Amino acid sequence: MSGQAHRNAGTFFLHGSRDTGVLLVHGYSGAPAEMRMLGNFLQEKGGYTVLGVCLAGHCTTVEALEQTTWPDWYEAVEDGVKALHSHCRHIYIAGRAMGGLLAIKAAAEFSPTDSSEELFINGHREDPAENRAKTCSVEKLILLATPVFLQDWRIPFVKLLRYFIPRLHTGQHSYNVPEEYMQGYTEMPTKPVPSLLELIKLCKAEYLEKIKIPTLIVQGQKDHTVKSQSATYLYEQLKCVPETQKEILWLPEARHVVTLDDAREMVYEKCLEFFEKQY
């Protein structure tokens, strides 16, 4: 999908058999289709209701994406959390690459009430677990190939280089899966990249320290977009998450789009196992 949207590229909703929903967030210049096989797996094997959102500027044209910034992308995530809450009592979120950064912000913003707090409604004590189900909150987080440190040496100069190199090839269509799951742009506009870097800074400075929920980090070690130490950094900076509630899944041979790469079945199984685990 280089210049226009594919009919199967956009938002998808899969109704499940339980009262827990999963929000899936695709990456920069990608599409919800890259998260569809993971969504199918979670719904079929786990009974989860799944919503795969389409971020602003995606599933349309590269020119449309060039006019967006991270707050535009986040709107779809915020709306997605609220939409899932209208169907489900419990909400989990998984984001890939830039989608992981947006998931971090959502987890910080839609933070569950601390289980140690006593809540009183109309003079009566409210059970904390019940309160979490009633309020719109994210209870588990998965970060797939989420960037803190990027491989491209040109990134520090992108504010200037974007005037000379307006687009980069993405390698989006180089995975051994049916074409219907590779519906991202074949070109990545550089104009919005400074905004993406701003979002990384905000995650490092503000959002990560606010997260208190169980978190799974997945990182391929042959990722040519995100440096592997990003996963270690994320793990270490989730200071409010107990050691027993956070982990890293290392994929020695995996590239950037871990939901489509050859180790994808391992990723799907691990995501389901993580969502099923009781903390």
> Are there runs of 5+ residues with pLDDT below 50, and where?
1-7, 115-124
**Structural class by secondary-structure content:** alpha/beta
Number of helices: 9
Mean pLDDT: 89
| Percent of residues in β-strands | 15-25%
* SSE pattern, N- to C-terminal: EEHEHHEHEEHEHEEHEHEH
Overall geometry comes to globular
Largest β sheet strand count, sense and barrel closure: 7 strands, mixed
Helical content stands at 25-40%
Number of strands: 11
- For the record, give the distance between the C-alpha atoms at the N and C termini, rounded to a whole number: 41 Å
User: Cα-atom Rg, whole angstroms?
Assistant: 18 Å
Query: In order across it, which strands form the biggest sheet?
Result: 1-3-2-4-7-10-11
Q: Which helices and strands occur, and which strands form pairs?
A:
Elements: E1 12-14, E2 20-25, H1 36-46, E3 49-53, H2 62-66, H3 70-85, E4 90-96, H4 98-109, E5 119-121, E6 124-126, H5 128-134, E7 138-144, H6 158-161, E8 167-169, E9 187-189, H7 193-207, E10 215-220, H8 229-237, E11 246-251, H9 264-276
Parallel strand pairs: 2-3, 2-4, 4-7, 7-10, 10-11
Antiparallel strand pairs: 1-3, 5-6, 8-9
Helix pairs in contact: 1-9, 3-4, 4-7
